[in-house]
Write a structure and sequence with these properties.
It is a single chain. With about 110 residues, this protein is an alpha+beta fold. About 55% of the residues lie in helices and about 20% in strands. A three-stranded antiparallel sheet has the order 1-3-2. Helix 4 runs antiparallel to helix 5.
Length: about 110
């Protein structure tokens, strides 16, 4: 919960527009209570292994997430994965390299299939 509280602090200070926090599902109620008390928009997605992904942040960012649907992150398209990484503030060059690697894998699979 210390890391979660630090993420909330960074969001409130404007260091992050969007946060992805992965934690055990047993913390869900406390996390939701904190975010609701702070008036912060959020989405919670169970991972099926006793953990959850909690996205929270700016209303515009949250609406983008709602529209692309970020339930199972492994099912995101290459473009959605790239967009999510950029929105989360990941290194742009690393995100570009990740996108190209994913696209090349897809191109190889298409040729083989």
């Amino acid at each position: 919960m210390k890391v979660f509280c630090h993420h909330v602090y960074e969001f409130k200070k404007g260091l992050r527009n969007l946060v992805l926090h992965t934690t055990r599902a047993k913390h869900r109620e406390a996390i939701e209570a904190k975010l609701e008390a702070e008036g912060i928009r959020y989405l919670v997605h169970p991972l099926g292994n006793g953990s959850i992904n909690v996205f929270f942040g700016n209303a515009v960012c949250m609406e983008v997430l709602r529209r692309i649907g970020v339930g199972n992150l492994s099912r995101l398209s290459d473009e959605e994965d790239f967009l999510l990484g950029i929105m989360l503030g990941y290194d742009r060059l690393q995100q570009c390299a990740r996108y190209l690697k994913r696209r090349d894998r897809e191109a190889v699979e298409e040729l083989a299939g």
